[in-house]
Amino acid sequence: MATSSSSRTRRILYIVGGLLVVGLAAGVTAWSTGFLGNGEEGRPVEVAEAEHRTITQVVTAFGRAQPETEVTISPDVSGEIVELTVREGDQVKKGQLLTRLRPDNYVAEVERARAEVSQARATLSERRADSLQARQQFERQEKLYDKGVVSDADFETAQSTYHQSVARLEAARYQVESAEARLQDSREQLEKTRIYAPMDGTVSKLNVEAGERVVGTSQMQGTEIMNIARLDQMELEVDVNENDVVNVALQDTAAIEIDAYPDRRFRGAVTEIANSARVSGEGTQDQVTNFPVKVRVLDAHNVDAGQVASNGSGVTRQEVPTGPDAPPNLRPGMSGTVDIFTQTMADVVSVPIQAVTVRDFNALDGGSDEPEGLDRKEDLRRVVFVAEADTARMVEVETSISDDTHVAVVAGLEGGENVIIGPYSAVSRELSEGDRVRIRDKSEDGSSMEIASND
After folding, report:
1. Does the domain made of 103-192 have the CATH classification 1.10.1020.10?
2. In sequence order, which residues have a C-beta less than 8 Å from that of residue 268 and are 6 or more positions away?
3. How many CA atoms lie within 13 A of 128 on its CB side?
4. Which of 8-17, 127-136, 138-147, 359-368 has the highest mean pLDDT?
5. 36-66+239-455 sits in which CATH class?
6. What's the whole-model pTM score?
7. C-alpha torsion sign, points 12, 17, 22, 27
């Protein structure tokens, strides 16, 4: 039994001794490579050169194609469709007859109104004759009254009769005017049974067939018979996030990719920016605020972001043509992606986006006299770390616009510096002024990158 216990003790000692040897070897390796902070070479980092380049800021949004001009055709009067002269997809000209409603009831109304006009005119003639007779009678009574032949009562009766006849004559005139107005209205209602195209375009939607009854807009919303659109003037309405819409301006150029044409890019220009937002998921954690932006499709030529013209320091603009200049076969409802080029800066110092981070300068200065906690003020500034020999130097920078990969630096760098871009944990949190670093050889495993801090 004693022999067995002694054997177990020796095995434990061997295991502990082996672990100590392995730990010592790992410690020596970490010390020599700088993992523990006092290495001779420092920890490896990735760098990229700050270089002059052209930066184009892009706002990307999604939407659907629609005609710039599209009108809904609804009847002003109700009735049955007896004639439909167009089908969906037909091209029409302004003033062309589109459809006709059954006119029987409206024809009868016109005849009734015409008869009322004739009756009112006859009544007017009668009242005119009565008024003439009453005036003559009054004038005779007036002369006799002046001579003292007739009594006051007879004179006043003649005078009252004349005034009443004048009033009836005036009322008859108004009745004629009213009847004529009803006749004119009836004729207009009859004319509205024939519906004409208000503009040149294409029938983009047809909602009815001959024989159906439709409701006029004079009574309620009315029946939408069809839509006519200018398909040669197309646009995309996209939703731009509230954080990006402040960078978008009228006349900004754009590149449009339509899902139905994956190998083509269309040129576009911003023509309208909404002032009212669209809010989805209001009151929830998923609430999103977007602003509708309309982008006119200019032509079917391919375009690349690098081909956008720039004056070197300002916002790129392009004049929007007024005539139809959209590519054919771009149909309403097609979905697409729009890249709006909001601003371009040429020959500006730029660094990869991952090179820029923030540091609290209050913390770097040893902190303020205020206690740690929520009340301590932070002084966050943008910085990059420049690898100089075997040391990391922190440089405060002022940034401007950015594209997908690089950000423009307008102050702090001259160009040509080796800025540290990785590893991410080091750049974002761990790296400090004066840390020993070593530019990592491309053959090294990137997972071994760390920072050696001077003690």
Report:
1. no
2. 236, 253, 254, 255, 256, 295, 296, 297, 298, 338
3. 8
4. 127-136
5. mainly beta
6. 0.65
7. positive
